[in-house]
Design goal:
This protein has a single domain, classed as Vaccinia Virus protein VP39 (Rossmann fold, 3-Layer(aba) Sandwich), CATH 3.40.50.150. The model has no long low-confidence stretch (mean pLDDT about 90). The protein has about 250 residues and is α/β, with parallel strands linked by helices. α1 packs antiparallel against α2 and α3 packs parallel to α4. It has a seven-stranded mixed β-sheet, with helices on both faces.
Length: about 250
C-alpha cells in the first residue's frame, strides 16, 4: 500500500476523514495500487463460475470503482456493459482504462441506492462494495438491484468466509470496525466502511425478502476451511420469471 505507486499514510488519513464519495475521489488515481482493489484472481474465478450460467445480454457492474469488474462482464455478456459508481474520481480513472474486447462499455455516475435504470440488465455484479452500506440499507439496495434486472436476471457477487473467532484476521477486522465506529461517532461527515456487517445469513434473508431465489456456488480456486466449508462463495440471486395470470374467458 505504501509503495511509490500507492497512497501515502497522509493521503489515507485525509481520505478517512472525508465523506465516502470525497474519499474515493481523492483515492481514485492510486486505487488500483491498493489492497482495496479486487484481486484479479477473484475476478477470474467469478468469471469462470458465471460462464456456465450465461451467456447474458446486458450487464451492470454495481459500485464499479475504477472498472475492474467490467472485465468479468465482458467475458459473459454479449450486448453491452455498464459501470455505475457515485465517485466522479473513480469513474474518471475507469474511463481511461484499456477496455477488453467484447461488448460496448458505458459509465454512469449514480448512487446504488437510487439507480437511474429500468429493467435493462440480465446480470448485475458487484465486488467489494457492500461494506459501504449499513445493514438497514440492504433491503433498499437489493430492491434497487431487482428493479433493474429483467425477469430471470442474476445478481452475483463473491463473499469471503469470515475469519475464525480469536484468529489474527478476526481481531484485525474487529479492530478496524471498532476504529471506524469511533471515528464516525466523533467526526462528520461519516465514512461508512465496515468489514463485519455484511453477513451471509443476513444477506440471504434480505435477498429472499426482496424477491430473489438464491444459490451459493463454491469457488474452488480458494480451497476450503478446516471445517470443510468453502473459503469463498459466489452468491447468485435470480429474479424469478414473471408468471402469467390466467384470466377466465369473457362472457
Amino acid at each position: 500500500m505504501f509503495s511509490p505507486e500507492g497512497p501515502t499514510l497522509r493521503e489515507l488519513a485525509v481520505q478517512a476523514l472525508s465523506s465516502v464519495e470525497r474519499g474515493y475521489d481523492l483515492l481514485a488515481p492510486k486505487f488500483d495500487h491498493t489492497p482495496y482493489r479486487t484481486p484479479d484472481r477473484v475476478l477470474d474465478a467469478v468469471a469462470r463460475a458465471l460462464e456456465p450460467l450465461g451467456p447474458f445480454a446486458a450487464g451492470l457492474d454495481l459500485c464499479c470503482g475504477t472498472g475492474a469488474g467490467v472485465d468479468v462482464l465482458a467475458r459473459v455478456c454479449q450486448r453491452g456493459v455498464t459501470g455505475v459508481d457515485f465517485s466522479a474520481g473513480m469513474l474518471e480513472v475507469a474511463r481511461r482504462r484499456t477496455l477488453p474486447p467484447g461488448p460496448a462499455v458505458s459509465w454512469v455516475r449514480a448512487d446504488a441506492r437510487a439507480l437511474p435504470f429500468g429493467p435493462a440488465f440480465d446480470l448485475v455484479v458487484s465486488f467489494g462494495a457492500f461494506g459501504h452500506f449499513l445493514p438497514r440499507e440492504l433491503p433498499g439496495l437489493f430492491a434497487q438491484v431487482r428493479s433493474v434486472l429483467r425477469p430471470d436476471g442474476c445478481f452475483a457477487f463473491p463473499v469471503v468466509a469470515p475469519p475464525r473467532p480469536g484468529s489474527p484476521g478476526y481481531w484485525t477486522l474487529l479492530g478496524f470496525d471498532t476504529a471506524m465506529r469511533v471515528r464516525n461517532a466523533l467526526w462528520r461527515p461519516p465514512f461508512v466502511m465496515y468489514y463485519r456487517t455484511f453477513r451471509l445469513g443476513d444477506v440471504g434473508r434480505e435477498l429472499s425478502r426482496a424477491g430473489f431465489r438464491t444459490d451459493l456456488h463454491a469457488l474452488p480456486e480458494f480451497g476450503r476451511r478446516p471445517d470443510g466449508s468453502p473459503r469463498v462463495r459466489l452468491v447468485v440471486a435470480r429474479r424469478p420469471k414473471q408468471r402469467r395470470v390466467s384470466r377466465p374467458p369473457a362472457g
